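Exercise 7.
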Amino acid sequence: MIRPRPRSAGTPGSIPTAAPADTADNAPAIPVSHTTGAQAPAIGNLGRPFTKDAVDLRTTLAHMLLAGGAAAVITLACWFALGATNLPSFNSSFVTKALSTAATVIVIGAAAGACFVWLTNRPAKRRYLLSAALYLVPAGLVVTTLAIPLAATSLYLDGISVDQAFRTQYLTRMTDHLGWADMAYLDQPSFYPGLWFFSGGLFAKLTGMAGWAAYKPWALVTLSATASMLVPVWRRITGSLVIAVAVALVSTAVTLAIAAEEPYAAIVAMGMPAAVVLARRAMRGGRGSLLGLIVFLGLSANLYTLYTGLTAIITIALAISAAAAGKTIRPILRLGAAGIASMAIAAIGWGPYLLALATRPHGPTGKAQHYLPDAGTFVPTPFFQATALGALTLLGLIWLIMRSKRGDARALIVGLSCCYAWVVASMIMALVGTTLLGFRLDLPISLMLAAAGVLALADIRIVGVRRLYPQTVKPEWSRIATRIMAIVLALGCLNYACTIPINQRDRIDLAYTDSDGEAHRGDRFPADATQYYAKIDTFLSQRLKTRAGSVILTDEKSFLAYYPYHGYQALTAHYANPLGQFEKRNDEIESWTDIKDPQKMLDAMDKAQADNGWHSPDAIVLRGQLSKGKVIPKERFSYLIADDIYPNQPNVRFRTVNFHTEAFASGWDLGQIGPFVVAVRERDRG
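Solution. The predicted structure, written as tokens, is:
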């Protein structure tokens, strides 16, 4: 995946290398220089070079699996333990914030201490225990900064608001029926990358949880597992466990602060800096790097395609650069191999949708790009922020410029250049009525620069002052420099990590103020209309016999997120499957509001099914009033239609249309549940 097992001896200026068959995997992420002789520079007071921790590919893969598995189990145990407590809500008390800060201090302090022991005094008996603890440090940060602030609620960041409604609906669908089915439309393959939701549905089934209830623990587990798996990856890249822990810990903190609300995208972004380094090495002949790149591209395509596409573009640029520099087509051939193999993996999830898109009628396929928030009008420059992240990314930027002739630094430069080009292109694309969602690249840009910042600190320690003044810098000064940089990095990470709950305050508040699937709020205030959902579900289940396969027309997005009924219409155009023909369905639904005759209403629904293949509604759940179970003449049942109004912001407009109550006077089994009228179509269901 990255560098193979080192030889017992190396050459000055390079990390010790292994078998020459995989030479591109040996290129150092940071230079290891010599001073006055061939001896590699020492760390601490024992004379160990950073590359002492280099491991082979097989060991790296084993460590990734063990670290990810252990992190998942420990995080799940912490989530369960926190759920058994009686902590106050985050939005009404500072108790959970205080506990989060204290726990973060302990985790980062323990990590700093473990790194110091690893560098200065590494007894063989404690070597494996110490390395295992360091592998799990990033997972500990996920627990302290997210799990603790969310301890008193069943919901994840953003609750069931904003985009979490459709994400929860997707996980609920996968929990009910594992596969690649669309979250809303019946008998349609999903067009949204489904690997995270598929595995989350499996997790919910194995633990016996409802889909909505599994969302928070699954998000925490996947974030923790990915964060811990970064440590062995970066260990193989740099040859140093300490540097690997630092990069992984910083990457985790940045991800949690910027984009933790979208866990399946976050776990892809966390791996992008390493993937960029792998891409350069893969294009230059590294077999392990090529394998790692293929797996990353293939899996990420089934998680968050935007980042996959960006990584692919970076890989293409690196391949062209390698081909031009070496005057050979071998990098292009390796690029082709990586592309074919990764697309084969991606086709597992994308194949059914692409096949259906080519053979069935569908609506516009670019609605998801119809979004340009304020953040999409700025070029991300984290290095100008007056924060610990700003200082680290500025250092990383300077290091990239100074080390631009070195392979891995050059790879990150190419990666950042592609990111910034994408951001600017996204703004220009507004002229043709779409975007490239450039605002989403704030996270990858910050992660690449932050990783470069950590590598810069390591570089300074190895070839800094002592290389400039080899005759005057004493070993004691070297030890002091090591400790100072370690302390500064630890304190900077601590300062930044402790602000994560504050940066996510609004999203955490929604997790407490929204009502969960059992009509409970984390802040213990009365629930909203969600309190009626259980009765609605009972009413529907008694008459429809099954949830899956039953199509409901409703604008209650939370109801479809908590219960696995299929929707006649998706929540908004931006997350609607093009195969569902969202806008055409809107027109059809609105045409029904002119109908008063019950039989004509049924005929219109059946005609839409016959003409378009849309399964007609088995039931409707709308707001309105009945009188003793009968419709009230001249009254209305209201329904919210979502219109895509891009380029305006907000990009969605909800408008109310009203159904004539007389249209449901016969042919429907009616019930009044709270403010909702529930109407089940009378069919022969055997």
